[in-house]
Design brief:
By secondary structure, the chain is an alpha+beta fold. The protein is built from four helices and ten strands, in the order H-E-E-E-H-E-E-H-E-E-E-E-H-E. The protein has helices spanning 3-13, 84-90, 125-138, 195-206; strands spanning 61-66, 71-76, 80-81, 100-103, 109-119, 142-151, 154-164, 169-179, 182-191, 210-211. The chain is globular.
């Protein structure tokens, strides 16, 4: 994927940010089988996805088809699907905004999904993760933590970071994998005051992502 495409993609999904830090390489993460309880000094951990399964989501989420029925993902029952008008207002660039998105009643917690035009396969994900990491550092996001996780039989790129907004900060959980030879990007975000309430839920939801 070209740097220009990543600039467009992630500038559209997130705001610009705060303090710079040095990017590191993620290429060796794809086949790692080791568990680590804490991140290394670059903020990159290799904890298996199973350690995220910390709660039963059956009473608070409903599994729904996403990406034209090519995947399923648990969506909180309190969320509503955004209208096209709402999506266009929240994500301004028509080229890279989510094709489907969900939000809570106050618009403070959001989920979005898009299958991009970028050609991708499982073997491409480590290189794509490297490029994503470079872009996140270039945008000066805080507390960047990236890994490639094994989720229900397939590799998924996962990033967490904090980005700024006009009057607050935003917790972001980004994930990406290939669907039908294209890169699918999913985004979860919430205002920073809700991070403790939603972080574990978001990770558990991601552990239930399935590509059909």
């Amino acid at each position: 994927m070209t740097r220009s495409l990543f600039n467009l993609l992630f500038l559209a999904f997130f705001a610009s940010c705060v303090s710079p830090s040095k990017p590191e390489n993620l290429s060796k993460m794809a086949t790692s089988k080791k568990d680590k309880d804490s991140a290394n000094d670059t903020g990159i951990s290799e904890t298996k996805i199973d350690t995220w399964k910390q709660m039963d989501l059956s009473k608070i989420c409903k599994v729904k088809e996403i990406c034209n029925g090519r995947a399923t993902f648990p969506i909180p029952v309190e969320f509503t699907k955004m209208s096209e008008k709402m999506i266009s207002m929240k994500y301004r660039s028509s080229n890279v905004r989510p094709t489907e998105a969900f939000t809570d009643s106050k618009g403070a917690v959001n989920l979005g999904f898009r299958i991009t035009s970028q050609v991708a396969s499982q073997v491409d994900l480590a290189q794509i993760a490297d490029e994503m990491l470079g872009q996140f550092h270039a945008l000066n996001f805080k507390n960047i933590n990236g890994e490639i996780k094994r989720v229900n039989g397939r590799d998924v790129i996962v990033f967490q970071f904090i980005s700024p907004a006009i009057d607050t900060e935003i917790y972001n959980l980004i994930f990406a994998t290939d669907i039908d030879g294209k890169l699918m990007v999913g985004t979860f975000n919430c205002v920073i005051r809700l991070k403790n309430q939603w972080e574990s839920k978001a990770k558990t939801m991601l552990s239930s992502l399935r590509v059909e």
